[in-house]
Amino acid sequence: MTTDPYSPELGDWRLSFTGWATGSGNETWDKPLPVSLTSVYRDGVKQFSFQAPSPSALQLDFAWSCGQRAEAIRPRIHLANAEPLPGRARIAVAVPDSYSSELYDCLQEMMGSAFFSFAAIESYCNQVIAERSKGPIEVRRKKNGVEHLPASVAVERLSTDSKLKDIVPKLLGTPSISGRKEWQLFLSLKHARDGVTHFKRHDVARSYPVLHEPTALFRLYRANSFEFFDAAIAVLSAIMPTQKERWLLNPRWNRTNGPSTGNKTQQRKATREPRSGA
Predict the structure, then answer these.
(1) Are the C-beta atoms of residues 56 and 75 closer than 8 Å to each other?
(2) What is the C-alpha to C-alpha distance for residues 69 and 71, in angstroms, rounded to an integer?
(3) Kindly report the CA angle at 36 between 31 and 41, in degrees rounded to 5?
(4) pLDDT tens digits along 70-111
(5) Whole-model pTM?
(6) Which of 15, 139, 169, 193 could form a disulfide with 118 if both were Cys (CB 3.0 to 4.6 A apart)?
(7) 19 near 35, Cβ under 8 Å?
(8) CA distance 148 to 139
(9) Nearest to 74 by CA among 263, 239, 267
(10) Which is it for strands 47-51 and 38-42: parallel, antiparallel or unpaired?
(11) Which among 127, 158, 151 has a CA at the least distance from the CA of 59?
(12) Per-residue model confidence as pLDDT tens digits over 98-146
């Protein structure tokens, strides 16, 4: 049996921790055996246990599934020519009312992808703080100077931005992604996630004179189906040490059909189709 840390023989790719045990105590085994973290619940009557999954892996897997479903829905969203509003627009298209259900299904999946892609990054940051800190976490404040927080308090109090940019790199001994392309991917992902988590009126519809500013819903429609998932993968890959977490290499996340063909193709087609519906 191999002792490859990425071997499929270790079990499900979403496991929180995996490794190989070669013995117990003074006993050495003939073959190494896979080991993993176990989650246990016990009360006065019964006990329940299972192999503990990585929260980040579960969240990424859900974001991946959302992307797949959104990609499958997009071809069913039809566009049609529409009357342009007063202004400089030369081409106007709309989703006919009869296709609103397909559009909403797609938006729901993209909301899930944005939310859980961001959550996967936050969960990994919390995991690193909990597992790697050997004492209080040093936090530099602009107004109050240096503050030292217990790891449990840092996880609750610090923003994901601060954890990702400053705290986690120090604990892992890796370069900060601040100022790099992965940081911009994170900020874009955060913007999308905030828009669908804390919906404001302007995230749903805008009015004059800011029609040129995309709503959160339009950003979801316009995004590649796997854009948020891909951003989370890129950010996590950049902040991890050379030996990546096993769950990050989950072979299930390899897509064979390539990225979304995008909505621009649909928009070009719509300008040639007869107007209907809306």
Answers:
(1) no
(2) 5
(3) 135
(4) 999 999 999 888 877 776 667 778 888 899 999 999 999 999
(5) 0.84
(6) 193
(7) yes
(8) 6
(9) 263
(10) antiparallel
(11) 127
(12) 999 999 999 999 999 999 999 999 999 999 999 998 888 888 777 777 8
Distance of alpha carbon 130 from the chain centroid: 20
Per-residue HEC secondary structure of 144-172 comes to CEEEEECHHHHHHHCCHHHHHHHHHHHHH
DSSP the chain: ----TT-GGG--TTBS-EEEEEEETTEEEEEEEEEE-EEEEE-SS-EEEEEPBPHHHHHHHHHHHHHHHHHHHGGG---EE-PPPSSS-S--EE--GGGHHHHHHHHHHHHHHHHHHHHHHHHHHHHHHHHH--SPEEEEETTTEEEEE-HHHHHHHS-HHHIIIIIHHHHHT----TTSHHHHHHHHHHHHHHHHHS--HHHH---TT-TTSPPHHHHHHHS-TTHHHHHHHHHHHHHS-SS--GGGG-GGG--SS-S---HHHHHHHHTTSPP---
pLDDT, block means (10 residues), the chain with 278 residues: 82 91 88 90 94 96 97 93 73 86 96 97 95 86 78 90 94 94 97 89 74 85 96 96 93 66 39 35
Q: Which of 63, 71, 73 is nearest to 101 (CA)?
A: 73
Cis preceding linkage at 209, omega within 30:
yes
Tell me how far apart the alpha carbons of residues 108 and 112 are, in angstroms, rounded to a whole number: 6
Q: Which of 174, 60, 188 is nearest to 128 (CA)?
A: 174
What are 39's two structure tokens? 């989650």
Q: Which residue has the tokens 């959550």?
A: 119
Buried residues in 64-74 as b, exposed as e (16+ CB within 10 A): bbbbbbbbebb
Partners of 21 in the beta sheet?
33
Residues, the chain, total?
Answer: 278
